[in-house]
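User: For this week's homework, look closely at the record that follows, marking any run of repeated tokens, and judge whether sequence predicts the tokens.
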Amino acid sequence: MASDPAVCCWSSASVPGPRHWWAAGSAVACCLIVAGWLSLSEKLYLFSSDSLIPTLASTMQWTFYYWESDRLGQLLPLLAMPVQDPLGNNMLQCFLGVLLGIGVLFLLPAFLPAFASSRNDSWLAAGTITVAAILLCSPPKIFHIYLPGSHTYGPSLCLTLGGLLLATPRWSRRHFVGRLAAAVALVTCGLWVNLAVFIFAAILIAVDALLWARREHPAVEDTAIGRLLDRRLPWLPAWIRDGVTLVIPMALVLATGLIVNIVARKIFAPEIKSAYSHTSFGITPLEVYPGAVLQMIRNAVTDYLGIAGLGFVAASVVAAAWLWRRGSLPAAVTTLWITAGLFLLAVCGLRHVSLGNACNARYVLPSIVTIQAAAGLVAAGVIREMAGAYEPFLRRSLVCWGSPVVIVLALAVAVGPPSPDVPRRLLTRFASPEAEEILESGVGFIAGDYWAVWPTVFKVNLLLAERGETRRVWGIGYRASVTKHRWIETAPDGSGRLAYLKAAPQHYGYALDWLAENLDLEIGPCERSTERIDYRRFRFAPPDRAAMKGHDFAR
């Protein structure tokens, strides 16, 4: 047993002390500052169909999973549902997404054994440096895709890592049942939001435990699992026993979350016609795989790291070599590097990613964030080495006030001052000719191409809310089947007028045929045509509500 609680990361007596809670409070303050600041900045918002459907789901028709999909749980739309104003709902979801996405950058180093001691605040410095670097160095896509949470990796990673952190044996045995229940709830919610995070979490746990068990370390403090292994397998080497003791609680919680989500998917996943909405588990052909890995790395650097971000990561590699020669390289850096690499290799092995989506780098956002977190750990290690005798003072300063100040300065440089009139400016931007024309026409439905129809639906309903009107305008297009049973509210007799957006004239006839076939519509001839819009009458058969498996979650 280790006698020094400052060294024993896993001591059951290592109850977090006052400074630990001050450090946690400082990290939470940083997350709140970034989320609030970016929520009042136009830099965060990218109003495409993919990013607006969660807002429409929250204000018009919530479903367990993303519309017409059997994945991507709609947790943030559920939490934002009390705010029914479209723009306010979107801003709240962005705030929650940024809050959880930034939280990941503090949880990654705090999760690892090397930084688990209650007397070690290095994780706070590492998280602060990583957040500042992302704000200052990353391309715009990191603000549009990862931080708002519209592609779910930020919220899912934060909830899953937070749950696993509660499941580790580093805490006191007090309130064990409550901690375990909270851990299962958080991990289950995290995997519901994005089940792919299971792969990342499993790799992180395995790599962390293996590398930690192979190092010189104090024994894991007395736990029920450790005593059971001592009794049943006394011949087991101490490092294997300690590694198993570390892994079992987290593995059980992760497996429980996975099982719950598999059962939930059987119950709530909708009956989907389109093959594009199904989760695909096909394997990338072997001859394509090496090129897919290289293409994914290129896309990740171009889209989410940029030149400045790549320079930050490259400098961290050089600094890591310097720390390693001095014998002070944080062990967690190796864990993060290996985890990021293995997750990237695993994702590139999916046919859906490598061939179906042309190696889109959003699928490896966990690897990108992990690499940046590792760079932050290295930077914190360099500062600690160079600070010398001033290191305790710097650590205390970070815990008390330094981290929020650094974050505020980074936000001021990268984003500029927040503005409370951002909603008004955004509303002015949304007042498009199509929206104004549709409002004046009084139609209740907007049809068209997927990438055109949902932003227009959002804009029109936003303007209706601004005018104080209670009626809604519904979209007709790809992913519209989930709202079809609500159309009767606007067209009680099953017929109505629609405004067809001529956004893609080369596919005009094909789009009408597709809408009629997939949504079971009878679309009449054009009654009136303008430069951007055709007006038509149509009829629809309201679906049987009992047959809307996975779709009908009307409030």
Q: What stands out?
A: The chain has two domains: 18-276+392-414, 431-547. The mean pLDDT is 80.
